[in-house]
Amino acid sequence: MRAELGLLLLALQFLTRVPLPAPLAAWTAFDAARQRACARYFPFVGLLVGAWGAAVTALAHGLWPLPVALVLGLAATLLFTGALHEDGWADTCDGLGGGATREQALTIMKDSRLGSYGVLGLVVALNLKLAALWGLAATGLPALFAVSVWAHGVSRFAAVATMLRLPYAGDLGRAKVPDMGGGGAAVAIVLPGGLSLIGAAALLQAWCGLAPLLAGAAATAATTLVVQAWLRRRLGGQTGDTLGAVQQLGEIAALLGALALQRTAS
User: Fold this and answer.
1) CA 243 and chain centroid, separation
2) Which of 13, 102, 236, 266 is the one with CA 20 to 30 A from 52?
3) pLDDT digits (tens, 9 = 90+) for 203-256
4) Helix, strand or coil for residue 238?
């Protein structure tokens, strides 16, 4: 139990800026094997990020109009994660938008400076999220909160699936993401993440029904498969930055998929 809690805390440290008390931080000893194993908890950490954003949105809505509350909720998730995935998305936009070859794209993605493609990508992504959240709110606040939590969870599962499915495209000696292995190792990573999502769906469906959650998951899965094919063709695999892009696109897809179902059903 302590070993699994240590992996959960390591995943929390890896994906968020949450400070851990010294006694708990001592449980998060870092090595390649533990970094690989902690990925099983990435979807669960995503659900926590979504729950935090939903809670801030709900509290803010008690004081201000909904548009303000939505922006504050989104800002809360950015602070919670340190905009880790948004940074990866922006770097991916710069690399794939500005690099004509695989080598040029990877070189651009390593540059810490933000280019025009990255700025445009961030603007589009953040506005799409806010617009989708606004649309979900029109179907009811419970649906808004449930789907937003769900989107954070399934999109991080998509990032884990991409780590497992695609080889690392950059310099393995400088990799920020581990070699995920395959076979039994893959099952040990995917199964706990899948169970986290099943448990979350069982709870969240009381707020919005199961159909929007399934629609969101299906949209995320379809988007992820397309992005994986694109990354394989352009880069020959994935990098830490492209995993951030997969998460961001998966999150947006989940929101839009659920919203499309809600609108057609109403």
Assistant:
1) 8
2) 266
3) 999 999 999 999 999 999 999 999 999 999 999 999 999 999 999 999 999 999
4) strand
The position carrying tokens 């492209």 is 242
Please, what's the b/e burial string for 7-45 (b: 16 or more CB within 10 A of its CB; e: otherwise)? bbbbbbbbbbeeeeeeeeeeebeeeeebbbbbbbbbbbb
pLDDT score recorded for residue 118: 98
Which pTM was predicted?
A: 0.95
Phi, psi of 238 (to 5 degrees): -120, 160
Which structural domain range is residue 97 located in? 40-265
Instruction: Map residue 168 onto helix, strand or coil.
Output: strand
Cβ-in-10-Å burial (0-12, 13-18, 19+) of 172 comes to exposed
Instruction: List CB contacts of 158: < 8 A, sequence separation 6 or more.
Output: 220, 221, 223, 224, 246, 247, 250
What is the distance between the alpha carbons of residues 242 and 82, in angstroms, rounded to a whole number? 17
Indicate the average pLDDT of the chain. Answer: 94
Looking at the domain assignment, is residue 54 inside a domain? yes
Is the torsion defined by CA of 44, 46, 48, 54 positive or negative? Answer: negative
Provide the percentage of residues in the chain whose pLDDT is more than 90.
84
Q: Has residue 233 been placed in a domain? A: yes
Report CA-CA distances (Å) from 108 to 100, 121, 232, 240: 11, 15, 18, 14
pLDDT value of position 262: 92
Strand partners, 168: 238
pLDDT (0 to 100) of residue 170: 79
Flag whether 60 is in a domain.
yes
pLDDT in tens, 160-214: 999 999 999 976 555 555 555 555 678 889 999 999 999 999 999 999 999 999 9
Structural domain count of the chain: 1
